[in-house]
Automatic annotation (TrEMBL):
A Pfam family of this chain: SBP_bac_3
Alphabetized InterPro entries for the sequence: Iontro_rcpt_C, Solute-binding_3/MltF_N
Descriptive protein name: Basic amino acid ABC transporter substrate-binding protein
Keywords, alphabetical: Signal
Protein source organism: Arthrobacter citreus
Cleaved signal peptide residues: 1-22
Length: 262
């Protein structure tokens, strides 16, 4: 995601006391324009938390982040409330949550790939992503080649994992973790020498001056909001319309500047 397979650990985070509500799974409600919805009066979004700054739990106990604010604006533009359901990333990228009518839309920093497009319909791209290498500030590493004989941590099932396994030196050990939280904890504990994942997420883990971005890798990745492959044509059009309106009225830029730095 940034293809992330952020899974079960995160699923416990927000069940119950947050702004999310359990989805009915009915899929019988509709907007005034006839777009089918899982829950009446709401755009129900599946995500995977935490993946800051895209989706995480704020100090007030509410879901927040770029993806969350973006979809909240889309829902408002459609005259709907936003409901959020936390799910494993495997269930998101595979489309399982959509097939089970758990949600209308997936917002989880999901990279658009040909493989995923076989099972999912995507909105227009809303974010361009770089991969990056996060290391201790004491490390002398400046490139992926410097990881020869060392350990790189990645999130399982992500484009970061694909990049690391394809590009890292052959004697680099690539170790998969289920969540971003586990990944960074492993780096802090010295169990791995570097983390390879999306740049904005790694920037959030510099921890003052304790860690630093050793290198960035332009991969041409873009994120999209995902919906059912079949039967969501009108929803895709409406989401794209809302994204276009946000770019035109400046709301997209406002949200982007809120969460990202150059």
């Amino acid at each position: 995601m940034l293809n992330k397979a952020r899974t079960a650990l995160a699923a416990v985070l927000a069940v119950g006391a947050l702004t999310a509500t359990a989805c009915s799974g009915g899929g019988t409600a509709e907007t005034e324009s006839g777009i089918p919805l899982v829950n009446e009066g709401a755009l129900t979004v599946c995500s995977n938390v935490p993946f800051e700054p895209f989706e995480y739990v704020g100090d007030d106990g509410e879901y927040t982040g770029f993806d969350m604010d973006l979809t909240r604006e889309i829902a408002a533009g459609m005259g709907l409330e936003l409901e959020v359901q936390n799910a494993s990333f495997d269930g998101l990228q595979s489309g399982t949550v959509l097939a089970a009518n758990q949600c209308d839309l997936i917002a989880a920093a999901v990279t658009i790939t040909p493989e995923r497009e076989k099972n999912l319909a995507f909105s227009d791209p809303y974010y361009d992503s770089l991969q990056s290498l996060l290391v201790s500030s004491e490390s002398k590493a400046k490139s992926l080649e410097d990881m020869a004989g060392k350990k790189i941590g990645i999130q399982q099932g992500t484009t970061g994992e694909t990049y690391a396994r394809d590009k890292a030196p052959s004697d680099t050990e690539v170790i998969a973790y289920q969540t971003d939280a586990e990944l960074f904890q492993a780096l802090q504990a010295g169990n791995i020498d570097a983390v390879l994942q999306d740049l904005p997420v790694n920037l959030g883990h510099t921890d003052g001056d304790a860690f630093t971005i050793a290198a960035t890798f332009p991969t041409g990745e873009v994120y999209g909001l995902a919906m059912k492959k079949d039967g969501s044509e009108e929803l895709v059009k409406e989401v794209n319309s809302q994204l276009a309106a946000m770019r035109e009225n400046g709301k997209y830029t406002e949200l982007y500047n809120k969460y990202f730095t150059e």
